[in-house]
Amino acid sequence: MADIILLYEEKLEIRKEIADMLSDEYDIIETADYDDLIRKLTDPARTPAVLLVSVTYPDAKGLTMIEKVVSTGLADVVPIVVMSERDNKIVERKSYLLGVHDYMFKPYDEVIVRARIRNAANLYHKSSGLRTKVKDQDVTLNKQLLLLQQQAAELVKSNNAIVEILGTVVECRNLENGDHVRRVKDFTHTLAKSMMNNYPDYKLTGKRVEVIASASALHDVGKIAIPDSILLKPGKLTNDEFDLMKSHTIRGEEILDTLKDAWDKEYAETSADICRHHHEKFDGRGYPDKLKGDDISVAAQCVGLADVYDVLISERVYKAAYTPEEAFHMIVNGEAGTFGPKLIECFRKCKDDFEEIVKKSREEVIDDGTPIVKF
Fold first, then answer.
1. What's the predicted TM-score (pTM) here?
2. What pLDDT, on a 0 to 100 scale, did the predictor assign at position 254?
3. Res 55: pLDDT
4. What pLDDT was estimated at residue 169?
5. Any residues with CB less than 8 A from the CB of 128 and at least 6 apart, and which?
6. Running DSSP on this structure, what letter comes out for residue 338?
7. Predicted confidence band of residue 369 (pLDDT cuts 50, 70, 90)
8. 73 domain residue, yes or no
């Protein structure tokens, strides 16, 4: 089925001239009225792939029409191509500033006109496909959020149960395996306990350590809002893709914010803080808020180091695994981001404990007693 081109021009003879040029390849719908144009632009049964606006002189009303369409937001959906009866740099510049896709002027070369219209139509189809994917992703996310809220309401009296349910959502989408979540929790508990014992100025207690360790299981819950094409991409992310990936910190906080009244306040606040700030760095070069030093909570600092360590020792679609020894030195030497000196000192003290956690996680005894590597 031919793509639909919606052609706006008040003069019948000019509409006919343009339509005759393109009608063998496209389904041309003509209009000379703004209200009619808007109806045709929003008709779900016959959605145009391109809005073709003819600009004639001396009044150049087509440009005014473009301004009105842009103000409705419809220009973000259907690309606009301008065909002008003369080369006018002011009109051309203003057209592009308004966001039109292309601008042509007489004398028209039919081959070039067709190519540019085809490019605009291709842009429409690509954009439409992306919008559909985003819409599907939003629907999926809303269903997941609804499920989380229902589960949280049923388990309001059990903080640990809520943490496990939310962590399972991440695992079920294959964003992280269960071992990653459990190891990060064990690493976090080990670090936080060492910080409590060695640095009383952080005012950590045994209960607080348990809350931080439990809440660490939700550090990446925001990744349920990130498309698989980015999460599982084996190659290097583009700048835009990396920016979207980094947004999982904020999205995680937003997800947990919807549940804040359903569970213990300390668990809710700690989990949200960890979600948002576990990628902050002590030197202020982290994200999303570029916090520096102890402006980063001790909870987020512990989870941040635990997460980096586990990522380093794990095989991912984009990297091979480092040994625990290599991961230790990379963190201590600052190759994996900057962590606070007190945290690094505790990490040094906990080196053997970390390696024991890794060893236990990697070995699983099967029926005949043979240990197997789980990842």
1. 0.55
2. 92
3. 87
4. 63
5. none
6. -
7. very low
8. yes
Catalytically annotated residue among 223, 260, 290, 319: 223
CA distance 275 to 254: 9
Cα–Cα distance measured from residue 8 to residue 18, given in angstroms and rounded to the nearest whole number: 10
Residue reference for tokens 């999460």: 231
One domain for residues 18 and 167: no
Q: What are phi and psi of 11, to 5 degrees?
A: -90, 125
Token pair for residue 86?
A: 């003369």
Q: Is residue 311 part of a domain?
A: yes
223 is catalytic: yes
- 200 shares a domain with 120: no
Domain annotation covers residue 243: yes
- pLDDT tens, residue by residue, 278-333: 999 999 999 999 999 999 999 999 999 999 999 999 987 667 899 999 999 999 99
Question: Where residue 44 sits, what CATH number does that domain have?
Answer: 3.40.50.2300
85 and 219 together in one domain: no
**Banded model confidence at residue 130, pLDDT cuts 50, 70, 90:** low
Cα–chain-centroid distance for residue 80?
28
pLDDT of residue 368: 42
- pLDDT of 146-193, one tens digit each? 776 665 455 444 566 566 666 666 665 555 556 888 899 999 999 999
Q: Give the list of residues 6+ apart from residue 125 with CB closer than 8 angstroms, or none.
A: 49
CA distance 77 to 57: 28
Residues 73 and 221 in one domain: no
Q: At a CB cut-off of 8 Å and minimum separation 6, what does 25 contact? A: 2, 114
Q: How many domains does the chain have?
A: 2
Distance CA 329, CA 343 (A): 14
Does some domain include residue 328?
yes
Domain carrying residue 291: 159-373
Q: Do residue 95 and residue 25 come from a single domain?
A: yes
How deeply is 271 buried, as exposed, middle or buried, from its count of CB atoms within 10 A (0-12, 13-18, 19+)? buried
CATH number at residue 238: 1.10.3210.10
